[in-house]
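User: For documentation purposes, I need each entry recorded in a consistent format: the amino acid sequence on its own, followed directly by the corresponding structure tokens. There are two entries in this batch. Please keep commentary to a minimum and don't merge the entries.

Assistant: Recorded as requested. Entry 1:
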Amino acid sequence: MIPLLFFSLVVLLFQDANASCKGLDMDDPNYQFTLFHDNKTLVKCSWLTENDDKLSNRKTTYCPYVELHCPISCNYVCTTKAPIQTPTSRPSSMPSTSPTKLPTISPTKGPTKFPSKAPTNAPTGPCADSSTYEWTNDLGNTVDCAWLTKNSKQSRQRIERWCEEANVSFACPITCETCTISCVDDATYKISLMNKKKDVFCSWISSNGVKEAQRRNMYCDKEGDRCPKSCGFCP
């Protein structure tokens, strides 16, 4: 009676394992999800793969949340597998080894008195658009990241126009879909100063608080893609 009951239980587990993967062989055609940058634009699973240039970034950003609804677009593979071996006909009568008589040894060391490192000042946090960065648009108006999608009829045009600019691309990574690009200065790149026969690293731009704004105005339009941090583009 016991072996039969044991075998029946394994069969049920096998059936449940297969059942848990059903429905994951195609994207849900009715499922829609909201884009992070405005929390209102709805797209279907096919949006994830419709732009080859942004495919990797879109999958990285959204698939952890929608992969069970969009398994094909997210390349999701159900990892549940059937048991590898057929169960034995009857349970073993004895454990394979006898239990140890005594615990091995006492703990090797006592607890440390202090934590190894102090906590960081602040968590790094997820990718996010800057809430403070502003720039001047083609009409001479001062705008920010939210402006890119403020007008739904013009959002695509604005994104295509401004996300090509290094400053906007780094400052508004959610809207511009550039979260996978790190906002750091190129440590090896040097800027050729306009009025001097001298080359300097990106950090020179922000090394003098009094002259920082002037230097950014002079150099960051040209050098911002290599020096985004020193140019103040990072969120």
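Entry 2:
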Amino acid sequence: MENFYKVGTIVNTQGLQGEVRILPSTDFANERFSKGAVLALFDDKDNYIQDLKVKSGRLQKNFYVVKFEGFYHINDVEKYKGYVVKIAQENQEELNDGEFYYHEIIGSDVYDNDILIGQISEILQPGANDVWVVKRKGKRDLLLPYIPPVVLKVDVAQHRVDVDIMEGLDD
């Protein structure tokens, strides 16, 4: 089976016409949830269910409201709450140098002055820039803003991120 990468989670229904609310987990949400996009639906046990073609999608607050082709009523989609939508690796576009997909960053080791401080476990999108959550042993999670003074180098091939933890970030 080909590789799939998570782009969002269906968190609720929207209205009565078969639309769902999706909490995105991708930098490319506008592309992923636009008309004609094909996504794969996976259940809460990560079993593939079916491919879905986006009929329409729009941003509403922190969610995307998406209608898939073939689903016309709330009863058609209600059972998919908590399910995950993913994109097939073959449908991912090539990125420019210095750009990367979330799945390439999550799990990477994080170093400050060549000292391992933890692993990236999650990427948050609170506003102007992404925030990388670093899991550390014996300490609370570290929240690193993805900005040039903090993130110095990202080596996707080596799963390594070099950072400079500025004063005040690790209090």
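Summary note for entry 2:
The chain has a mean pLDDT of 90.
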